[in-house]
Specification:
Layout: E1 31-36, H1 40-57, E2 60-65, H2 68-81, E3 87-91, H3 95-100, H4 111-114, H5 119-124, E4 126-127, E5 130-131, E6 134-146, H6 157-167, E7 175-178, H7 183-192, E8 198-201, E9 204-210, H8 215-229, H9 239-247, E10 251-257, H10 262-265, E11 272-275, E12 289-297, H11 304-314, H12 317-327, H13 334-337, H14 340-343, H15 348-357, E13 359-360, H16 367-382, H17 387-405
Parallel strand pairs: 1-2, 7-10, 12-13
Antiparallel strand pairs: 3-12, 4-5, 6-10, 6-11, 6-12, 8-9
Helix pairs in contact: 1-12, 7-8, 16-17
Amino acid sequence: MACAPDREEEASVEDPDNTESEGAEPDKPDQLHMWIHDNDEQANAIEDMASQYTEATGIEVQLTRMNYDDQAENIALDGPAGTGPDIYFKPHDYTGELAVQSLAEPLDLDEEQLERFTPESLQAMTYEGELYGLPFVSETAALLYNVELVEEAPETIEDLLLIAEELTDAGNDEYGFLTVPIYYYSHSFITGYGGYIFGENESGYDVGDVGLANDGAIEGAKRFQSLFEDGLIPSSINPEIQDGLFAEGKIGVSHTVLGISTLMVKPLVRRTCAQLRFLFKNGEPASSLVGFKSWLLSPYSEHQYWAQDLMLHLTSDEQNMSYYMATGEMPAVSTLLEAPEIADDELMSGFAEQIVNGEPMPNVPEIDPVFGAMGDAMLFLADGEDADEIMTEAVEQIQQDIDTMN
């Protein structure tokens, strides 16, 4: 990824908005430019929201569709060239990396404007004491279960494994429980026995303390691995196959994310609920990694006041709920998660509850080596390699990569 120059060394971007006297509203620009994710359903919803902003303010909004992964690289190139956006859209785990590279501008918003958002979402968008974006979507992994096959939700990991043993007939592609060997999902198993990604100190994450090879993490890895060793889950499983089998009614319990399976099963007979409340060895409800897709302010924007105003419009209750109704992507606003549209939906309310039990993915740059090494480790576990060695070697690789970064 291309890096922007250090903020101290770069030429300052003239910001007409910042030249106004305190409390005065800057002149409106003719146009604001925003980058959005390249997805038809999401783009159509955002286009409608942007049109309403234009009607309310008279400011035209130019939208450019671009994949998440391309936005950070392109902002580093297009921003200094004057062709970049005023705001752009990224998952929160990029926050630290973007802040370090001066590719996101800290927001200047008051407490009243921020109190609507869940504390976890604001934490996820905060790096070294500065807020770098407004949360728009929250997502996590939970369990979908077919109540025609599973009468009661599992309360412990033992209950879940019993369902897997009783309902699995691999020869007919029928499974009691399916998850995939990706760390995003296996995190629930690792942390359920005492593992963790990074320790924490007064400053935030302690990236020198990686807890993915302690005794608890290895025990959780072995429990996860046993699902594959015992023939309860095929090592070749992937999210697409998993979702298809669940839609066909061949899975009792599916460990998946909001946005992959949920919209697909909603048109079907309502036979599903979502939750991840079962207990692991630590006696706590199963945790999960929570992600927040957020709007970020470009440091190269010449209209930062109005860019932030557009961000507030997009994340308002009315607009955020309309986006949820159009896309099924959960908001990050506390009152909206409790609104009837979500709370009375047996499928979506379970994901909303799990967001509360989850933990934000670390937003520091050092998270990249974690997902790289642990992604490989989960595949090795599914293939039956020694769990102690795999987890130990993965953490050694993570620590080496972090040392190289720093």
